[in-house]
Amino acid sequence: GSITGVVTDKATNDKIPFANVLLIPENNTAFVNGTVSDKDGNFYIDNLTFGNFNVVISFIGYKPDTIKNINIDKQNQQVNIGEIQLSAFTVALDEVVVKDWAKTVTTNLDLVTYRTQDFQTTKGGNAANVLNKLPSVSIDADGVISVRGTPDFMVYLNGKPTHMEPSTMLSQIRATNIESIDIITVPSAKYDAQGKGGIINITTKKTGGKGLSISASGLIGGAPWGNYTHQLSNYNMNDNRFGGGLNFIYSKNKLSLYGGLNFNEKNVNGTRSGFASLLQENGSYYHMVPNGVRPEWSENYTANVAMDYQLNNKSIISASYFYGNSAKGRSALYNYHTFCGDV
């Protein structure tokens, strides 16, 4: 036989996901079977033998509830116990002072949502710069992005999976175009089976209202006073950084169109020095002293367009297209001073 039901909050009627559901024989305290409710609060227990059972439902912050004397027999093999409403625990306090602050972080079980507008230092960067400020996310010197120490994770854009390389995808989305970022550091079993270390969902900005809205942004920076031409290679050394974007949103009745063009270019000057020694057969040492510069550069260009059409209050048809191109490089311009001698 089987038992089904749904777990809700008694005060708000909201569904309660991941509630514990235990099945216990009516005249015994031994645990027989159990499960947890899904994201919509529904649960299902099957492969049950005939008999009388009690179902105990519990969740953190709520009072447990027990549904008693559920009979499963030949004539009543599939039992739906309907809606089980849990009441929240209440604690009486002498005095409570409430201060209202806009949430930077919203936590819901294994989902953490960050509002990117609160990260002021990343406004001139891209999605990777924002992620580098978040817990459980790290970016190494080569730009490889890891969640919980592993680079094997999934990237979603506006709730839809993408098939681009994650580090490339994140480098092509400007921080100013991001509304929020969801980090799922404990994926469900279906993601673990694919070896995924985490899930990142990036939600881009959309504005409400009717009519046409156009926004433009620009970025310029660096240290132009430090630019120079390398004497030996004639290479143009510079720290210039600039970018910009043009985005639009058009809304009328049930139709919404939005899209944009964005670009970002970054140059970074670097230096290198070192010392190496090689022991020769005659017992003397051959010394090498490298000294020079190692400039790096990167370019990112993106274009996106999307459409939403609201069929009714519960259904929306969406279509979107995203194109991005990313390039980066590094040069090494070294002078080597060599000489022989003892250490």
UniProtKB/TrEMBL annotation:
InterPro entries: CarboxyPept-like_regulatory, Plug_dom, Plug_dom_sf
PANTHER family membership: PLUG DOMAIN-CONTAINING PROTEIN, TONB-DEPENDENT RECEPTOR-LIKE BETA-BARREL DOMAIN-CONTAINING PROTEIN
Name listed for the protein in its UniProt record: TonB-dependent receptor plug domain-containing protein
Domain TonB-dependent receptor plug: 114-199
